[in-house]
Amino acid sequence: MKQTAEIEEIVGRLAAIAEDPNAYAVEWKARTQRKIIGILPMNFPAEIVHAAGALPVLVQEDNAAITYGRSLLFEFYCGYTRSLVDQAATGKLKIYDGIFLVDHCVALLGAVDAIRFEVPDLPVFLAQFTASMDEDTTRPQVHGRITELRERLEELCGSSVTDEAICRSIEAYNRDRALLRRVYEMRRLGRISLSSRQMQALVKSAMVMDVDEHSQIMTRLVAHLEAGSVHSTGLVKLHLSGHFCHAPRPELLDMIESCGVAVVDDDVYTGYRYISTDVPHKADPITALTQWYFDRNDNVPCSTRAQKSADWESYLANAVEKNGAEGVIVLVAKFCEPHMLYYPELRKELHKRGIPHLLIETEHEGLALEMLKTRVEALIEGIRRSVLSRETA
Ligand code: SF4
Question: Which is the closest atom of ligand 1 to the Cα of 105?
């Protein structure tokens, strides 16, 4: 009982920070007198900001209704970009000393233009990384862009960003990712019973907190989780896939799990995609961060990148075979083009391998949870029936 209470307390603490990252960032700045830099998903190396002595905070979708931002971006932009612009228009981005990003889709570029227009005094630096991973020019180009990021951070923070500092930051982030991956591993093995809402809080808090502080808390959490026992739930095991850039609403995750489901794994951005890959050890830390860009797409391919030797559909189907999930729920943010256009490939592969799945489209403006629940229940019923007919055949 004591163990469970400790776990709840630790996860609750991280969840509170994940729920209000701006409050954490403002408090951190007052405490440390250092700068906070807003970084945008999905390919930005936070290590470089950390090495400059600033706090990298991955700017999250805000739950508030989009009001002023409506006049700045079309309604057919994804909820994340419209929320970003609304945060700019309502003064919420003013807590940051700068916004840094690596582009990955055209909607994000549109949002950045609107942020520049709305908050002209806020330094915004965009590094364009080549999306085609197979070109000979991609690696030197990405290396050059990370070098520029380093220079711009040196100007903004007023101190040099040394190789040693970047190496220390890489180690710190690798440590934190490893702790989070350990929790993921325990979830796959059925050794822990954290809900998807709680798992999301662990990753989301890692995106916004000081990495050392996060690792300290995670170390305590992992120790408590390791001391727990194996859980056999009898629930239908599912894999959650997709949802780029921002976290799906926790109430959606709660609803899915309320249908007799145990989520055993995911590849959502505010989940395993974010923590999948460590920065390799290399003498030149910029080369290491460049390599990380390539390694991430090898490990968990993303449809915003083009690479002949890596495809998301094979990754997804293989992951499901390994983690023992009996089905997949694909979560796609409405108007997320890179995901919507790729979905037919995912569907084809899941069909080919006989993996049941359901597509759920999410919206910033809210979700018809009761209606969605009927669809999730139908998926679960179908999985249960096919298991039963296999067993009785
Ligand atoms: S990848 Fe999708 S969710 Fe992310 S900014 Fe682009 S359209 Fe929006």
Answer: 6
